[in-house]
Amino acid sequence: MNTDTLPPATQRHRPTLFKSFFQGSFACSTACRDEGKRVDLVINSGHDTLLNKDYAQLAAENLLTARDGARWYLIEKQPGEYDWSTFLPMLHAAKKHEIEMIWELAHFGWPAGLDIWQPEFIDRFAAFARAAACLMRDEGFDAPFITPINQISFWSWAGGDVAWFNPGVTGRGRELKQQLVRASLAAMRAIREELPAAKFVLTDPLVHVATAERSDASQQNARQQHEAQFEAWDMLCGRLQPELGGDLSLFDVVGVTWYPDNQWYITGEPLESHQPEYRSLSSLLEEIWQRYQRPLLIAETGAEGDKRVPWLKYVVEQTSAALDNSVQVEGISLFPAVDYPAWADARRSPGGLFGLPDANGNRTIYEPYALEIRSQLIKMKQADRPSPSESTPE
């Protein structure tokens, strides 16, 4: 056999970017619903009063990297005046429990009285981001991971196309996306001036849109809808609408959110795993890796109730397959780390590793989930051991 014609063997990627591969993600949306009611999930989950306990429980399960948020609407109630009393405890608790944090600065919410459509929104957000960076630096966080604006594409659709939450309009999704991109870029530049070693995790849903029809028109429609998921990332890195100021040097980590309902037909019907048009997570991870050649983080993933464990098994299996193909996936963040009443309808969302607190402020761990995470940690460590051929000879 002529081995010169064989394709080169792929080498499994070994994640090293974050302190831990398995991570926890706290619900920290502060969106306002269409009736004007703000839903602060940090408060609703009890996380605001249980920071130390929540971070300690994560650390006890060896989840040493986590996502959490600085709530802009509470910090800057008056223009240019910052009250850090809700954020400093997070910084201190993270340091105490040695949790590496990915800080979100805007998760579907902003201060009252600020018009998101005006240039002032960009200026105020950039100034807030700079102030937050200075605070982090003063508190000893010299190289933090930061998500300036969480899930720009989803926010643009939910707030600008279907009026699901703020700004609560329709037909302006593209305009909102552009505005959020401008604000995000301005914030990242301000942060880098204060913290040159900061790294940005830019999050959005990873989806697949398909059609069962074979006509050219339907196939093209599906491709266009599928490609639309990349618009915000393309804007941020300067591939699309470079006049917005996109910059590849700010494009550090691609964070994807991935849930059981992230695949659908162009008609809007859900696409199930048994249907032929369904795509594997590993293939979607490889697609986005090939497109951007940047480290990937599954920044949110999870399912509810007794579906948590099988869903995690599937995600880990698919991520492992991607790692085997040299795709640079650096971690899986479980959402939510703690339960919360769902922001959309206030029902309990039983999807966390830890439940809602009892009257004494104690959370019950969902043991089947915890056991599966521990088992997967062991398997991942075994898979990442170098083979004898890769070992350095003595």
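That was protein one. Protein two is written in the same sequence-then-structure order:
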Amino acid sequence: MSEQSLPDDARPEYTDALPEYAERVLEVAELIPPGRVMTYGDVAEWLEEGGPRQVGRVMALYGGAVPWWRVVRADGTLLPGHELRALDHYRAEGTLLKQASRAAQGHLPRLDMKRARWDGGERAEGHT
């Protein structure tokens, strides 16, 4: 049954409001300082809700309005399809990178996760 064939009172409500979980994920992304990163799993753990896939989904759907390049994959690889844009941001912010080996596809660097990863610092103490 298509949505158009549903009675008016059975159709889902559409609003401009983001889902609550998405708002919270985006708030965390905005807290990450320039030059630092958190993994999708770090964000989920910090929120004590969801997991890396849920955070990734939120970032894919709604992340364009926040510093999306600061929420990353745990292995430090740059976001596929957005590598060059992310790299520009990392270089501008001084995010620590590891030089790519000559065998690496496209010779793109990776994030230096040991040194660039942010744990939430002092700001994390007041999160809800």
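Residues 1-15 have pLDDT under 50 and may be disordered. Keep this in mind for the problem set.
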